[in-house]
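User: I'll paste a sequence; please echo it back and then give the predicted structure.

Assistant: Echoing your sequence first, then the prediction.
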Amino acid sequence: MEKINTSIYDRLLTKEAAIGVVGLGYVGLPLALALAKKFEVIGFDINRQRVEMMRRGEDPSNELEAEAFEGRDIRFTADLDDLRKANFFIVAVPTPVDKHKVPNLKAVLGASETIGKVLKPGDYVVFESTVYPGCTEEDCQPIMERFSGLQGCKDFKIGYSPERINPGDKEHTVETILKIVAGCDEEALEEIAKVYGAVIKAGIYKASSIKVAEAAKVIENTQRDLNISFVNELAIIFDRMGIDTREVLKAAGTKWNFINMTPGLVGGHCIGVDPYYLLYKSKQLGYDPQVILSGRRINDGMPAYIAKRLVQILIADDKNPGQCKALVRGLTFKENVSDIRNSKVADLVRELEDYGIQVDVVDCYADKEEVKEEYDIDLLDQPNGPYDAVIVAVAHNRYKEEGIDYIRQIIQPEGIVMDLKGILPRKVDGLTLWRL
């Protein structure tokens, strides 16, 4: 590696070097803006329309206010030549799974190629995207080496720092969440820790290796996935017993070491995706995980279970599902965000339609064009009732405030209300209430 007199951290502090953040979505943009308080930052994204929005001080993900862009040393670009000026690269592109639940590494491998074209001796590359253990060094590093002609950890340094962004959470922000960092050697670890430590108030945890850091990220969300699958299975069992699951969980929660989780649809870009990365790598190594796979099956099967239960209730009420009309309230993967990635509500809509039910969908946060493009679902501006059933699928604050009084205005007398998030009163006069 070409010897440079000053460390990368010192060069960044004096702005002799710059940070390039590749991928400016939910993870990359807030990180880039936080780093731009201390360093010169080049924010790179291949979506030129998003770049133009950010240049105007607008967050395409609707997470940050205009004030977050003020007073920051940052330049947004979609041009590769601008990225050449960076010396410390951070990759924050999405890593979803495909329709077969296989990791889709197209974006992260594409980012590796992009960075490989602009790498210089002495540069650093840190990956934040969720991957399986080994991906950074075994898949991404060779691509960067091939396109740059440089040798990883000798001519340029490599690291990994898993993102922990929680969309919609105004308390746990990028600067207030403890940051795990890892490097390909001790020098890389120390320099990467210094860079992140300059803006992360919650502190830095130095992992012993890149693979350990990658694995830590994957199991964080896999653990949550398994815990939710457990309470989802309980919900299925207790529903057959005529017991309210949430009342059971509330009672059990009085024990000091009980882990409080609630049943529901498990979507989004983390909990519903990360376990598949661990499953994929495990199977490559000849081990077929049992517990993780079982949890995934339960959570992935919840939309079908909920749709089936509605059909059963309709039939019990002497109604033909094929002549019924239902409203689904909420399509985003969680409350009070516009993020529709991997929304299991969309799966629920498809399951209901397969039974012949006419389904309308509304969401006060989701973008109509994005929903149409991603799921081919037409969001309504307003409900068009009356409905035989109303399904509260997402706990947006607006839906909590409107409560059951609003639903009464759009539902048939003696209609069915499915409360998937437990935000309505337990007993509702004149209506059939079912909840997970």
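The chain has a mean pLDDT of 94. The two ends are 58 Å apart (CA to CA).
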